[in-house]
Each structure stands twice: as structure tokens, then as C-alpha cells.
Amino acid sequence: MATEIDTQDKPGGFCRDCLTEQPEGRTRCRACGSPRLLRHKELYGLTLAHIDCDAFYASIEKRDDPSLADKPVIIGGGKRGVVSTACYIARISGVRSAMPMFKALEACPDAVVIKPNMEKYVTVGRQMRAMMQDLTPLVQPLSIDEAFLELAGTERLHRDPPARTLARFAKRVESELGISISVGLSYCKFLAKVASDLQKPRGFSVIGKAEALDFLAPRPVTTIWGVGKAFNASLEADGIRTIKQLQAMAESDLMRRYGVMGQRLYRLSRGIDDRTVHLNEAAKSVSAETTFFDDISSHEQLVPILRSLSEKVSTRLKKHDIAGHTVVLKMKTTDFKSRTRNRRLEDPTQLADRIFRTGLQLMERETDGTKFRLLGIGVTDLEGSSRADPPDLVDQQATRRAQAEAAIDKLRDKFGKGAVETGYTFGGKDRKR
């Protein structure tokens, strides 16, 4: 494995700052003096990359407010929310994504907390996506700020091998968007993603095929996709902590112990990953959730919140002309334990009314006096909207509610979201949440 600070005598190196080719043995660029040299024996033969923005939300806020440059910045909800992301200064103090806000402020009391501005972040994400598509048509987004790219066959277009094209792209992102990215370059998705996280921020790391086994061997099993806390505990109980231990085990033994996941352990521990980069991989779910300022146990208080979230989900489904077969309810208790309930519908839906009423039935079983800090609703098993919400020949009221919702949508499109409210959400802004 090689990163930007590897200075061994390896052919084919270049400076990441000025892109000047470097002779073997140098520790600084012969043209600009930069120490950011990139060398690797397989550097010019690898084509699959993972690009990940560095502290994306926080970087945008620092770009837009230079006074924040040297301050710890946390992007997240209020006192009862969680951390969406934190800049690297805040991370030094132990702040991490998904950490409860009160714990983050205990770790870093001097942090500047900024409420997320998703509209601004989405705009920057789209700009970067467009820049990625200038490199290659094979861009597979994973989220607003990361994607896989396959650059095989682009050498003639860019008159450079993928490694240099990616280095030039990183410079362009910094220059035009004012944020930084980290790049992982390898021969497969798994190792490209691992590589992009090795030298953050502003990293560029390479993992070649010849070194994959040795690179992976000393790393913890949690490096492998799908090995979370629960599964890691199972592996630890069996005495398995490092990837080297998995490399010494037979595939049949791993599958006998862990089923399908055993096969994944066998393959990825050896750097075997045949997945290709897919163009515009479809979203798997659409959801909305909110964290309350005060814990809520009252069913009466939860109902209007559920209705409002259902309308948000419905709006997104209709905007993208998709529908979902399964409604999923998510609730989180005061001790951060999640309850997830779901119900599959006979026909896919994009209606707020059906999403809400299905979620309400699921929620009624959970509102037994338990206090909740978070509520969410969403749909999965997505498809096009052509078969969504056929007329209900049995429940005529459902058909009338669907017609009323269509009328409300037209009024909101014309006069704004607040033009019409249902009885469930009317006056919702004044409710204590």
C-alpha cells in the first residue's frame, strides 16, 4: 500500500500539487518543492476509485464563513439532536458523526454548532457530481458526498492515466468548490473505499492487487463491510479479531459458521470483490425523521408529527415519480434504543394518507407510556409510480382522501407549502416538541 507520503523508490510517481513527474528517490517535488508525492508500482494500471469529501457539511460552512477556519465546528441539531458531521479540529476532541449532541459538547465545549443547511449542501453535491461525470460516465453515488468512479478507457479522453486525472480532479474541486476530497484508488470497490479513508483529509491512497493480502492481514475484522458491532461481537466470541485469522480459514468453515456472511468474510479478507461500478444506482428507500427537544410519550403529541413526516416522504416520492411497497416506522427511546416496525402494502404508494395511516397503526402498538426522543417514517421496496395507489373499491373514503390529497398538492404547488394544512398538523409550529 502506498500513500502520498510514501517515498520509497517506486517508478511512476508524480507531485499531487503540480503534477510534475518525479525521478526515483526524491522526497520533495523537483519543480515546486511539495512533499505530497505519490508513488506506487501499480499506480498507472489501476482504474477504480472511491471519492469521499472531507467533513463535507463542515467544510462548506467554513468555506462560506472564513472566521470559522481555525475553530471546531459541529453540524447537527439542537441540544437533543445528533452530530451530522464535525470538522477535523472537533474530531481531535473525540466528536464523531451520529454522536448525541450533549456528548459532543461535553467533549468539545468550545465548538461552534451550526444547524444543517441541506439545500446548500445538496447544491454543492450536485456541482461535484457534475464534475465527476466530466471524468467518466461510470459514476455510482453512495451519498451526497461520496461515489465510486470507473475510469478504465478514459486515458485517451484525458490524455493521462486515471491516477493523474484524479489528482487533477481533486485540485479542481478545491479551486472551484472550495472544499477538499480524499481519493482511494485500487482494483476493486472494497479496497478503493478502504483506501480513501487512510489519509484524510486531502488524502490520495493506493492499494494494489499484489499487496492486498499483506495490507489487509493486520487490520481488524471491522474493516470488512457488514461487520458491525453485533457481528464483531460474535467473531470476537469465536476468537477472531484480525483479517489475518480469516485468511487462514477455509471458505467452507466460514460459511458453516456464519452462512452467507461467511462467504463475504472469505472473499473480502483476500481482497476478492467482483462488483462493478453501476451507473446511477437507484435509491433503496425514502424517509424522514425528527429528534424532539423534549422526550415524548403521549400518543396525541406523536400523531401530528407522524403526519408531518409522512407528508415530507410523500412529497419526495411524488417529486421523483416513485412509490414504495413497504412502510417503515422508526422510533428511538430515551436510552437510544431503536424500534423499527414495517408493513408491506398490497399496492405501492406515494400518498401521505396511506403512509401516515399505516405508520399510525404501527405506532399505536408502541405508545405504551414509553418516552421517545426520535420518530421517523419511510418507505422501501421502491418502483415507478405507474402502479401506485389504485382506486380502493372497498374503502370509498380512502379514494376520497386520495382525491383530496391531489387537490391539496395542486394548491401547495401554486401557493406554497403552508397554503393548506390538514387537521392533524394545523398549528403544529406551536406544539412543544
TrEMBL record:
<dbReference type="GO" id="GO:0003887">
    <property type="term" value="F:DNA-directed DNA polymerase activity"/>
</dbReference>
<dbReference type="GO" id="GO:0009432">
    <property type="term" value="P:SOS response"/>
</dbReference>
<dbReference type="InterPro" id="IPR017961">
    <property type="entry name" value="DNA_pol_Y-fam_little_finger"/>
</dbReference>
<protein>
    <recommendedName>
        <fullName>DNA polymerase IV</fullName>
        <ecNumber>2.7.7.7</ecNumber>
    </recommendedName>
</protein>
<keyword id="KW-0548">Nucleotidyltransferase</keyword>
<dbReference type="GO" id="GO:0006261">
    <property type="term" value="P:DNA-templated DNA replication"/>
</dbReference>
<dbReference type="GO" id="GO:0042276">
    <property type="term" value="P:error-prone translesion synthesis"/>
</dbReference>
<keyword id="KW-0808">Transferase</keyword>
<keyword id="KW-0515">Mutator protein</keyword>
<comment type="similarity">
    <text>Belongs to the DNA polymerase type-Y family.</text>
</comment>
<dbReference type="Pfam" id="PF11799">
    <property type="entry name" value="IMS_C"/>
</dbReference>
<comment type="subunit">
    <text>Monomer.</text>
</comment>
<feature type="domain" description="UmuC">
    <location>
        <begin position="48"/>
        <end position="228"/>
    </location>
</feature>
<keyword id="KW-0234">DNA repair</keyword>
<comment type="function">
    <text>Poorly processive, error-prone DNA polymerase involved in untargeted mutagenesis. Copies undamaged DNA at stalled replication forks, which arise in vivo from mismatched or misaligned primer ends. These misaligned primers can be extended by PolIV. Exhibits no 3'-5' exonuclease (proofreading) activity. May be involved in translesional synthesis, in conjunction with the beta clamp from PolIII.</text>
</comment>
<dbReference type="GO" id="GO:0003684">
    <property type="term" value="F:damaged DNA binding"/>
</dbReference>
<keyword id="KW-0238">DNA-binding</keyword>
<dbReference type="InterPro" id="IPR001126">
    <property type="entry name" value="UmuC"/>
</dbReference>
<dbReference type="InterPro" id="IPR022880">
    <property type="entry name" value="DNApol_IV"/>
</dbReference>
<dbReference type="Pfam" id="PF00817">
    <property type="entry name" value="IMS"/>
</dbReference>
<feature type="binding site">
    <location>
        <position position="52"/>
    </location>
    <ligand>
        <name>Mg(2+)</name>
    </ligand>
</feature>
<dbReference type="GO" id="GO:0005829">
    <property type="term" value="C:cytosol"/>
</dbReference>
<dbReference type="Pfam" id="PF21999">
    <property type="entry name" value="IMS_HHH_1"/>
</dbReference>
<keyword id="KW-0479">Metal-binding</keyword>
<dbReference type="InterPro" id="IPR053848">
    <property type="entry name" value="IMS_HHH_1"/>
</dbReference>
<feature type="binding site">
    <location>
        <position position="145"/>
    </location>
    <ligand>
        <name>Mg(2+)</name>
    </ligand>
</feature>
<keyword id="KW-0460">Magnesium</keyword>
<feature type="active site">
    <location>
        <position position="146"/>
    </location>
</feature>
<dbReference type="InterPro" id="IPR050116">
    <property type="entry name" value="DNA_polymerase-Y"/>
</dbReference>
<dbReference type="GO" id="GO:0006281">
    <property type="term" value="P:DNA repair"/>
</dbReference>
<keyword id="KW-0963">Cytoplasm</keyword>
<keyword id="KW-0239">DNA-directed DNA polymerase</keyword>
<keyword id="KW-0235">DNA replication</keyword>
<dbReference type="InterPro" id="IPR043128">
    <property type="entry name" value="Rev_trsase/Diguanyl_cyclase"/>
</dbReference>
<dbReference type="InterPro" id="IPR043502">
    <property type="entry name" value="DNA/RNA_pol_sf"/>
</dbReference>
<dbReference type="InterPro" id="IPR036775">
    <property type="entry name" value="DNA_pol_Y-fam_lit_finger_sf"/>
</dbReference>
<keyword id="KW-0227">DNA damage</keyword>
<dbReference type="GO" id="GO:0000287">
    <property type="term" value="F:magnesium ion binding"/>
</dbReference>
<feature type="site" description="Substrate discrimination">
    <location>
        <position position="57"/>
    </location>
</feature>
